[in-house]
Design goal:
The chain is built from twelve helices and no strands. With about 300 residues, the protein is an all-alpha fold. GO terms for molecular function: prenyltransferase activity. One of its GO terms (cellular component) is membrane.
Length: about 300
């Protein structure tokens, strides 16, 4: 019985942690490391790994907070089976009975405390200036869904995700590596911030009805799915436009490489516009949006190293 309980807890923890989505933070950190090596000739593996640990802990804590808040608000319990997808509906550990509500709250508290300790170690042992970036990211991750702030319930979730996984993570990692922040790092962070916000944007489509019932007033709920597809297209356009600006300002034509990913983005937009109310067919747009984010990150790394 004890072993079965441990297996259940471990399985629930990893489903809640969801390592496959850590790519959201790994991509900007890898781009920051490539930029630091290319522009400043430096890369400190020790501090890069500590940065990874701290950010991953925050991701787990954020997932846990979001999970129990969405459960208590009724959002997760309102999602019908035909609307469940691998890209939406939370981590499903409470609604599927894998973890209890109290267990998820304990995981949230422990991982956020550990993340704070790791952050303080980096601040005091490596780079004091990263403190303010760390505080911003830490606060956003907690209050993304936690009352009374509940950013994602009040229409600030998309901005919070774009800001965190773009400028905060990338520029914070670059600062830890180089003790400064460059124009190239800021522009790359904005590109990735727009694209990861777009991942959240399209992932909100399957949860539309449940979010509306649970008073989770994100911008897809506020605008309606049909109008929201126009913003979906605009975020892609802005990201690729920034790539061209980055290539010009940096004097590095390799920063045009992300434009190679444009056909994937165009396909995602076409699918979203056609099937925004047909969840099984919309999943292709969800998947392609994630691919655009990943491949853009890869091309930015290549561009930085080649440049």
């Amino acid at each position: 019985m004890i072993n079965e309980n441990r297996i259940r807890l471990w399985r629930g923890f990893w489903q809640l942690a969801d390592p496959k989505i850590w790519v959201a933070s790994t991509v900007p950190m890898a781009v920051a490391a490539a930029l630091a090596y290319s522009l400043e000739g430096t890369f400190n593996l020790y501090w890069f790994l500590w940065s990874l640990v701290g950010v991953y802990l925050i991701e787990i804590g954020k997932n846990a907070v979001n999970e129990f808040v969405d459960f208590e608000s009724g959002v997760d319990t309102s999602i019908t089976p035909d609307k469940r997808t691998p890209f939406s509906g939370g981590k499903k550990v409470i609604v599927d009975g894998i973890l209890t509500l109290s267990e998820v709250k304990v995981i949230a508290a422990v991982t956020m405390i550990l993340a704070g300790l790791v952050g303080l170690y980096v601040v005091f042992a490596r780079e004091p200036e990263v403190l303010w970036i760390g505080i911003a990211g830490y606060a956003i991750s907690i209050f993304y869904s936690l009352p009374p702030v509940k950013l994602c319930y009040r229409g600030f979730g998309e901005l919070a995700v774009g800001l965190t996984f773009g400028p905060l993570v990338l520029c914070g990692t670059y600062l830890v590596q180089t003790y400064k922040i460059s124009t190239e790092a800021v522009l790359c962070s904005l590109i990735l911030g727009l694209l990861i916000a777009n991942v959240l944007w399209i992932n909100q489509f399957p949860d539309y009805e449940a979010d509306m019932m649970g008073q989770k007033k994100n911008w897809v709920v506020r605008m309606g799915k049909k109008k929201a597809t126009s913003v979906f297209a605009a975020l892609f356009t802005a990201a690729f436009a920034l790539s061209a600006i980055l290539a010009f300002i940096a004097g590095n034509p390799f920063f045009l490489l992300p434009l190679c990913v444009f056909p994937l983005a165009r396909r995602a937009v076409d699918v979203a516009r056609r099937y925004y109310d047909d969840i099984p067919r919309l999943i292709e747009a969800n998947a392609k949006t994630v691919q655009v984010y990943q491949l853009t990150g890869l091309t930015l790394i290549i561009a930085a190293l080649l440049g």
